[in-house]
Design brief:
The structure is a homodimer of 224-residue chains. By secondary structure, chain A is α/β, with parallel strands linked by helices. Chain A has eight helices and eleven strands. The longest helix of chain A has 19 residues. Chain A binds a DNA duplex (24 and 24 nucleotides) through helix 3.
Chain lengths: 224, 224
DNA sequence: TAGATTGTTAATCGATTAACAATC
DNA sequence: TAGATTGTTAATCGATTAACAATC
C-alpha cells in the first residue's frame, strides 16, 4: 500500500496563503482550548478583518473540508493546517549568533508549536561560548559542521551581523543545512537545493512608515 | 509659494515595492561608502537576485531619475528612497514590553537609519521599571499616556505577550499614537486613523517550512 | 423547510514580466 | 558612432474579489 506524506488532496498554495495560515491556526487553537468544536470561515474572517472568501480558499488549500451551514471542525482544521505547514513534526535547528536578537529567539517558546526547536547556538565570541541562554548551550562555531552532520540538522537560523551573514550561510550549507532562516538584511547566495527565508524588519518598518505618512496626509504646506 | 512635502513627481507604490526599497537602500549606502558615484538597476538586480525591470520600476516610483548608459547617481537614489519612506527624518517612538524581544529591539542601532528612534520603554513588571536597557529607560506603563501626549509621540512598538497586545494597543491609541509596530501575532483592532504593521515571525517560518518541504520533495513512502 | 455556509467557476485587479523606442 | 541602460507601453501571470449553485 502506498502512503503519501501529504495524505488527502492538497492543492498548491501561494505565498500569501501560506503566510495567512499561521494566523488561522492561532485562532483555531484558541477556540480548541475553549472547546469550540466547529468554526465558520465567516468567523475567522471577522477576527482577522479579511474577506471570508479568502479564508475559505486558504483553508481549502490545506485539504480541510467543511460542511455547509456548520463550518469546519476545529480540530480537523488545525490538523490540516499544521500538516500542510509541516508543523506536526518538530524539526531541530541550530542558531548562529547569540547576540540580542539571537538570545530573544532562543527564549521564545512558541517555535515548538511551529515545528521548530532550536537545540544549540553557536558564536565566535569566547565570552559567550560555554554559556547557556534560555537553557540552550552556546558552542564554538568550529563545532557546527561536524555536529550538524552527525545530528542531521536541516534548519539553520542566522542572527549575526550583516557582514558575517554570507560567511555563516556558507558554513551552514557546507554542513548540510537545507533551510536557512535569515535575520540579517543580506540576500544570501545559496545553492539551488538550499532554501532561505529572510526576516526583514526594515521592510516592515518601511510599510509602516509609508502607511503613517499617507494617513497623516501629504498636505500641501503653505510657506510664509 | 507652495511647497509639497513630496517634492518631485512621485507615483504610487504598492506594498511589494515598498518592501523592496530598504534592500536597495542598503546596497546603495554600501556603494556610497565605497565612493561609487553611479549605479545601474542591472547591478542592483544582480545583487538581489531579482529582475532589473523590477528595480527600475521601484526606483522610478520614488521619483529618482537615471541616465541611459550611466544609471542613477548613488547619492540621489539614496536621497529619493529615504525621502519616499520618510526616513530622512528620525521619528521618536515608545516601546512597550521590555522582555527578550523588546530588549533586542532596543539594542538595535540600525533603526535610526530607518527613521525610528526608540526613546523610552514601558513595562508593568516592577523589577524592570527603573532599569536602563541599552541606554533606554524602562518606565511604568502608567506614565505612557501623559508622556506620549506631552512629547507628541506618534509611533509605538508592541513587544508584549499576545494576551496583552490589544490592551496595550488601546492605551497607545488613547495616548494619541498613530502608528503601531506590532510584534505580537495578534491582529489589533484600531480606529481608522491609526495604522498598524504586524511583524509576524510565524508567517515567515511558515514560508520557510513549505519551501523546505517542497525542496525535499513529497516523495511517496512505501509501507512495509 | 429555510437559510447560512461551503466550494466552484468567472471577473477583476494589481503586480510582474516582456518588448522596445529613446538617449546619453 | 555603438551599445548599455533608462523609461514607457503592452502582455502575462497570479491573487483577490464576485457570483452562485450545492447542501447540511
Amino acid at each position: 500500500m502506498k502512503n503519501s506524506i501529504r495524505d488527502n488532496e492538497q492543492r498548491k498554495a501561494g505565498i500569501p496563503t501560506i503566510k495567512r495560515l499561521p494566523q488561522y491556526l492561532r485562532i483555531l487553537k484558541d477556540l480548541e482550548k475553549q472547546d469550540v468544536e466547529t468554526v465558520s470561515t465567516t468567523f475567522l474572517a471577522q477576527e482577522l478583518n479579511i474577506e471570508p472568501i479568502v479564508v475559505r480558499k486558504d483553508i481549502a488549500s490545506t485539504g480541510a473540508e467543511g460542511k455547509p451551514r456548520i463550518g469546519f471542525t476545529t480540530k480537523e482544521a488545525i490538523k490540516k493546517i499544521e500538516h500542510f505547514l509541516g508543523w506536526d513534526n518538530v524539526t531541530e535547528a541550530f542558531l548562529v549568533g547569540a547576540g540580542n536578537l539571537g538570545s530573544a529567539l532562543m527564549g521564545y517558546q512558541g517555535f515548538q508549536n511551529h515545528g521548530l526547536k532550536i537545540i544549540a547556538a553557536f558564536d565566535k565570541d569566547d565570552k559567550k561560548i560555554g554559556q547557556e541562554i534560555h537553557g540552550i548551550k552556546v558552542l564554538s562555531m568550529e563545532k557546527l559542521p561536524n555536529l550538524a552532520k552527525r545530528m542531521h540538522i536541516h534548519i539553520g537560523v542566522i542572527c549575526v551581523d550583516a557582514e558575517h551573514a554570507q560567511e555563516v550561510s556558507d558554513i551552514m550549507v557546507e554542513a548540510g543545512i537545507k533551510a536557512i532562516w535569515n535575520f540579517t538584511p543580506v540576500k544570501l547566495k545559496t545553492p539551488d537545493d538550499v532554501v532561505s527565508q529572510k526576516e526583514d524588519l526594515s521592510s516592515g518598518l518601511a510599510v509602516l512608515s509609508v502607511k503613517l505618512a499617507s494617513k497623516l496626509g501629504f498636505v500641501d504646506i503653505e510657506e510664509v
